[in-house]
Amino acid sequence: MIDLINVSKVYKTPKGKKHVLKPSNLSFPAGRNIGLLGVNGAGKSTLLRMIAGSEAPTTGIIKRHVKMSWPLGFSGGFNGSLTGAQNLRFISRIYGANIKDVTGFVREFSELGDYLEMPIKSYSSGMKARLAFGLSMAIDFDCYLVDEITGVGDRKFQEKCRDAFKARSEKSSLIMVSHSMPTLKEHCDMGAVLSDGELKFYEDINEAIDTYLALSK
Q1: Cβ(120)–Cβ(83) below 8 Å
Q2: CA 20 to each of CA 28, 106, 139, 195: distance values in angstroms, whole numbers, following the listed order
Q3: Gap between the Cα atoms of 161 and 137, Å rounded
Q4: 53, burial (CB in 10 Å: exposed 0-12, middle 13-18, buried 19+)
Q5: How far apart are CA 162 and CA 113, in angstroms?
Q6: What percent of the chain has pLDDT over 90?
Q7: What are the backbone dihedrals phi and psi of residue 116, each rounded to the nearest 5 degrees, phi first?
Q8: N- or C-end of the chain: fewer Cβ atoms within 10 A?
Q9: What is the pLDDT of residues 89-102, one digit of tens each?
Q10: How many angstroms separate the CA atoms of 5 and 203, rounded?
Q11: Cα dihedral angle (30, 43, 154, 68), rounded to 10 degrees?
Q12: Half-sphere exposure of 153 (CA within 13 A, CB side)
């Protein structure tokens, strides 16, 4: 599904280099729902952005053999000067999706109303997240990337997000970052733990969670 070939990620910090991922040759298996775990600051979100292609690795290349989503709820790809509807049309064209269907779905799902005809730069962070999540659900992907998306909006909207996500995950695979162990157990069948720049896969999500909890002590 996803191959990492000599991939590494290094940041320069006041205390020296921070290795998010040391040079690695890894493959994320196809057809599996993978929970990505690690202590705070381990680099889980950074790794997810690299897989999505929104952040470049320091070395190596990432090969994606499936139609991959951006991290659900990620709104950094929107053009702030364009309206919500204009952004939807632009992104629909990129992914070869039907503009009318995508716009109609997002309009109903996001509950943004007239704000869809206003520039993105006038949106609150919550409104951007609603738009981004709705757009993620409007386009079919083979694999969804999820980074703590369940916290978007009020309780009613969160329930809507969970229902929509569950429907998509029944026919697509996913890579999920979450601090909620019940959420990972509900959606994932295997796990991967990122620690000290090294990523290790576990066939059983429960084994990955046990490893993560031991690192957290």
Answers
A1: yes
A2: 17, 35, 30, 8
A3: 9
A4: exposed
A5: 21
A6: 62
A7: -60, -25
A8: C
A9: 999 999 999 999 99
A10: 21
A11: -30
A12: 22
The alpha carbons of the chain give a radius of gyration, in whole angstroms, of 18
Instruction: Name the one residue in this structure whose structure tokens are 């993105």.
Output: 120
- DSSP secondary structure letters along the chain: -EEEEEEEEEEEETTEEEEEEEEEEEEEPTT-EEEEE--TTS-HHHHHHHHHTSS--SEEEEEE-S-EEEEET--TTS-TTSBHHHHHHHHHHHHT--HHHHHHHHHHHH--GGGGGSBGGGS-HHHHHHHHHHHHHHS--SEEEEESGGGSSSHHHHHHHHHHHHHHHTTSEEEEE-S-HHHHHHH-SEEEEEETTEEEEESSHHHHHHHHHHHH-
- Round to whole Å and give the CA distance between 120 and 67: 26
Q: pLDDT class for 132, splitting at 50, 70, 90?
A: confident
What one-letter code names the amino acid at 103? T
CB 38, CB 208: distance < 8 Å: no
Contact in structure between 81 and 121 (CB atoms under 8 Å): yes
In this prediction, residue 73 carries a pLDDT of: 63
Take residue 171 and report the two structure tokens written for it. 């026919």
pLDDT per residue over 150-198, tens digit each? 556 677 887 888 888 788 878 899 999 988 899 899 889 999 999 999 9
Whether residue 59 is predicted with pLDDT greater than 80 in this model: the reply is yes
CA distance 205 to 201: 9
